[in-house]
Amino acid sequence: MRTTLNGKSLNTYNCFFLPECVCDEDRDCSFHDGKQTCTCKSGYAEDEGICKETCVSNDECGNGGTCQEKNGDHFCSCRPGVEGDTCETVTACKSGIYKDCKGDQGTCSYDLETNEAVCECSGNKRLNDLKHICEECLCENDRVCSFNGGDPKCTCKSDYADDEGICKKTCFSNGECENGGTCQEKNGAHFCSCRPGVEGDTCETVTACKSGLYKECKGDQGTCSYDLETNGAVCGCSGNKKLNDQKHICEECDCGSDGHCTFENNLKKCLCKSGFSDDEGTCKMCDCGRNGECDFEYGLKKCQCDTGFSNDEGTSKSKRKYLNIILTNITYKEYDFNEANE
């Protein structure tokens, strides 16, 4: 019979103390027939003299490791640069090149595509290629910052190139340039060349629409665009709206179906069809015959007759004077009469 006293095994059959039972942390210690025996703990099995944690599925193995059978047991098989019973430790993160990539200096992890350790940075920090930690690295908006030889360096973003000190978006064909721009080569790169009055890397901005004459021509006040025929900005109006020549926006302008409405010096103007005149902003029928002009005044029709004609109930009629000389009594008679306009 065996028992223990103060951590030591006691052989009660022979009544003497056995030496202290000592094994590695991953093993359980026991005595059999007076001999110390070290066996792997539950959930562990021996692999080449070392007790390792066993697995049941790949999900128990970290960093892309797989659960594989070996000598009747299953152990995690780790990828290159990864260690630990469950492949939980990335060597370069623990004691290698990225051992200081932690906390506010980065996050070290394992890249399953490259099978390598990586130091990931956040915010405005970038990886210092000499220190192998993340440090602050700032550039202008159109450039990206990186470290080269331990020093920060600003370069143009992908699909951008330097054009006279400014990073501009590059192009491959004219189809990438808006408003009639063309893709042209310059200093080994290709950029959009814009027409007059157009700006932006892809000629996407019409200057007059953005900040010039037609800057308010938007929404329900019109649509500003670029006219490729005139090489200028235009403010397009829809419905009954027309361009106000002073405000440079679209406003309501309707003269009815018998006229055309425009703005002149910020005032609405109706250009009416023949036989129609403007009556308080609407073209209405107004005819004074061939020898006069018809207009409305305070809502009333008014005829302006040509010379030699007068208004006869809204129609211009001719006026002639005839002299009838009666020689017998030397009497002069004058007759006035209106003759219908031919």
From TrEMBL:
<feature type="disulfide bond">
    <location>
        <begin position="194"/>
        <end position="203"/>
    </location>
</feature>
<protein>
    <recommendedName>
        <fullName>EGF-like domain-containing protein</fullName>
    </recommendedName>
</protein>
<feature type="domain" description="EGF-like">
    <location>
        <begin position="52"/>
        <end position="88"/>
    </location>
</feature>
<keyword id="KW-0245">EGF-like domain</keyword>
<feature type="domain" description="EGF-like">
    <location>
        <begin position="168"/>
        <end position="204"/>
    </location>
</feature>
<feature type="disulfide bond">
    <location>
        <begin position="78"/>
        <end position="87"/>
    </location>
</feature>
<keyword id="KW-1015">Disulfide bond</keyword>
<dbReference type="InterPro" id="IPR000742">
    <property type="entry name" value="EGF"/>
</dbReference>
